[in-house]
């Protein structure tokens, strides 16, 4: 395994995030509830079997150690690959900062179990090398998920069918049977599946996990929910002001919200946005209203009914954890920056915001194809394979033939223009125009037929190009946005991600790992 970095930013990671930023942030006073938080995480993880390194991190967390944190929705069996890369980024940076600050820095992954958009997470893509295509695998359920995904549970039959469908799309390797066993032993609860898989992959790294929708965690958040509800007008005003500043500074607006309370409430088995209008709090899907006192009592007695939206979720995370830095994707970093005034209003400084590492894997087959066709991997990662394919076909085409076709088209256009000018009646002009259109269509048909013939002639090369594209730029984006981590494990090693996290150093450049 060889690790390379391409497409480096103009500034290196250490120039962009100098160490004094981490030292200053580490000096921020710990939250008073930190020991209670550590106990909640320990209880949440206890069924998994806490490793020695995780136990050490829980002890350090109780003592006020800062965390490096990031999170993601719970995708099908941890889909897609960039979820793993967030976790790797958290682990690598926590290790580096532990060394730099000479104190424990704890890696924490936040499973966004409160999210209710099941259509975003209920599927995955697996690459079929025999057919050179991507197969979409979808969870085998007809259940409608309108509340948080943490509340969603598959039946035994649905879980079995989903695992069977997923495994049927993986080619047989030495690891396939172990993966099937791992998936078959998963619990039926959606986020618990992701929790167990992540733990299995990263337990020796000391990674701590929490589900944002965990009931005990919700109880810890009670007073913060009350504060957010009571001060919702000021929080909303700060959000709007901060967003305007961000947009005026040239950043694209990232957050679109139709709430002025920025909280969700579970009601009638649906996760519904709260809005404040005409002196009442109104649920967006049922028009049910509440007074402020009624909601405060509900938060006090049933905090698990409440959750954050995109504006208050980052704030809640910050008010729960002693965060050294937050690691997120490019869009996440941008929308956190729109919340600067909200953090200022709450008298809590924004954490250091660091983009997760971007990682692409290349097996020997793809390496050989890149070398065979003298293709630049950096260009493919940023621009895809379309240009290379077009250039190849242009080089292989019979240029003299195509020049003659173009010349004939120009000649026909000129001659029929002259015929039209000489025509004595409108009817003759129409006939001439129709004839020209017919000839041009025939030439267009010839060109397309020739291109089909050219593609058939170079079918093997184009298949190779498609292989490269589906590995490095599938669905028009980076590999990590489509590929599934279990496919990589199936093709390489059950410990591939811990090995990578052990060897990586943090970088904001594009990492390429040659397997």
Can you tell me about this structure?
The chain has 515 residues and is of the alpha/beta class. It is 52% helix and 15% strand. The protein contains 23 helices and 15 strands. It has helices spanning 13-16, 19-26, 34-45, 52-62, 81-101, 156-168, 176-184, 190-202, 215-220, 222-230, 232-248, 292-301, 312-320, 330-337, 340-345, 364-372, 377-383, 386-396, 399-422, 426-457, 459-472, 485-491, 496-503; strands at residues 2-6, 67-72, 106-111, 123-128, 133-138, 208-211, 263-267, 270-277, 280-283, 289-290, 306-308, 323-328, 352-355, 358-362, 510-514. It has a 5-stranded parallel beta sheet with strand order 6-3-2-12-13. The protein has a 5-stranded antiparallel beta sheet with strand order 10-9-8-7-11. A 3-stranded mixed beta sheet has the order 1-15-14. The N and C termini lie close together (5 Å). The mean pLDDT is 94.
Largest sheet: 5 strands, parallel
Class from helix and strand fractions: alpha/beta
In the sheet with the most strands, the strands line up as 6-3-2-12-13
Beta strands, count? 15
How far apart are the termini? 5 Å
Give the overall pLDDT as a whole number.
94
Please give the radius of gyration in angstroms: 28 Å
Spans of 5+ residues with little confidence (pLDDT < 50)?
Answer: none
Beta-strand residue fraction: 5-15%
Helix content: 40-55%
How many H/I helical runs? 23
What is the approximate shape?
globular
Family: Belongs to the BshC family.
InterPro entries: Bacillithiol_biosynth_BshC, CC_BshC, Rossmann-like_BshC
EC number: 6.-.-.-
Enzyme class: ligase
């Amino acid at each position: 395994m060889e690790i390379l970095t391409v497409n480096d930013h103009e500034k290196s990671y250490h120039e962009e995030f100098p160490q004094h930023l981490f030292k200053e942030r580490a000096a921020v006073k710990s939250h008073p509830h930190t020991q209670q938080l550590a106990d909640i995480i320990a209880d949440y993880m206890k069924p998994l079997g806490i490793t020695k390194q995780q136990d050490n991190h829980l002890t350090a967390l109780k003592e006020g150690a800062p965390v490096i944190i990031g999170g993601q929705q719970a995708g099908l069996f941890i889909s897609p690959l960039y979820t793993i890369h967030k976790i790797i980024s958290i682990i690598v940076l926590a290790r580096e900062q532990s060394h730099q600050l000479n104190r424990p820095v704890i890696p924490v992954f936040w499973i966004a179990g409160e999210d209710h958009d099941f259509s975003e997470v209920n599927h995955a893509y697996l690459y079929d090398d025999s057919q050179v295509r991507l197969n979409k695998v979808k969870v085998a359920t007809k259940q409608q998920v309108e509340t948080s995904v943490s509340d969603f549970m598959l039946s035994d039959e649905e879980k079995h069918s989903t695992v069977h469908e997923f495994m049927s799309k993986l080619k047989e390797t030495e690891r396939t049977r172990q993966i099937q066993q791992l998936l078959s032993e998963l619990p039926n609860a959606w986020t618990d599946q992701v929790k167990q898989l992540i733990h299995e992959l990263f337990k020796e790294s000391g990674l701590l996990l929490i589900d944002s929708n965990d009931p005990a965690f919700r109880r810890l958040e009670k007073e913060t929910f009350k504060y957010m509800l009571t001060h919702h007008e000021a929080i909303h005003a700060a959000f709007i002001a901060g967003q305007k500043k961000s947009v005026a500074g040239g950043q694209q607006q990232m957050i679109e919200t139709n709430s002025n309370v920025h909280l969700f409430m579970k009601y009638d088995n649906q996760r519904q946005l709260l809005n404040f209008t005409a002196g009442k709090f109104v649920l967006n899907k049922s028009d049910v209203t509440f007074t402020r006192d009624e909601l405060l009592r509900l938060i006090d007695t049933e905090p698990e009914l409440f959750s954050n939206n995109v504006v208050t979720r980052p704030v809640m995370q910050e008010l729960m954890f002693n965060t050294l830095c937050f690691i997120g994707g490019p869009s996440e970093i941008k929308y956190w920056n729109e919340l600067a005034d909200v953090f200022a209003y709450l008298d809590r400084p924004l954490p250091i915001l660091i983009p997760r590492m971007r990682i692409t894997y290349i097996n020997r087959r793809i390496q050989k194809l890149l070398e065979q066709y003298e293709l630049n991997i950096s260009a493919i990662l940023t621009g895809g394979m379309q240009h290379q394919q077009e250039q190849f076909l242009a080089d292989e085409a019979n240029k003299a033939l195509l020049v003659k076709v173009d010349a004939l088209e120009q000649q026909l256009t000129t001659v029929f223009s002259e015929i039209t000018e000489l025509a004595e009646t409108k009817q003759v002009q129409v006939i001439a125009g129709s004839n020209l259109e017919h000839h041009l269509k025939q030439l267009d048909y010839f060109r397309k037929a020739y291109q089909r013939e050219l593609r058939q002639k170079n079918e093997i090369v184009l298949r190779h190009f498609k292989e490269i594209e589906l590995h490095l730029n599938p669905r028009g984006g980076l590999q990590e946005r489509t590929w599934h981590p279990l496919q990589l494990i199936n093709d390489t090693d059950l410990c591939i991600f811990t090995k990578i996290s052990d060897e990586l150093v943090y970088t904001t450049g594009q990492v390429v790992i040659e397997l």
